[in-house]
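So, can you check what follows?
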Amino acid sequence: MTRLPITNILSSFINLKELELDCGRYCSWNCLENLYLPFLQNLKAKTIPGEKLASLIENTGGYLNEISIEFSLPEVISNKKIIQAIYKICPKLKYLKSILLNENITEFEKILINCQYLDELFISVDNSDKLFEILTKSSPTSLYKFRIWNLSKPESL
């Protein structure tokens, strides 16, 4: 039995405003690479490969105001691609939930600089000290609420 690719179904919803994707690690999500959703405002993704997610963000029309990325431990390169897609394509972003790897902290600062409407931030990070430095230096004035989850192991006593 042949299944209709998800891309064919999703691409027919040109005016889609909210998309929630959730799948186990066994899905390839190649369908997201060329999916164009110009009016997408809210994106929630769980266990979606980072490079596929970055492609989806790049193919939105700049209206995304909420992005929530959960349950994926990205590689440095895919984490960087997601961050770059967000600061280049999402100037109206108000809410961001994501993982931030230490190697990409300077890229993350560009989100704070370019997304001036950001008011809520939920970040899982492996070096919270560097994150606090960047938040102090570059946060938009609209940012009033943030939650930080430290991924690093506590130092032994």
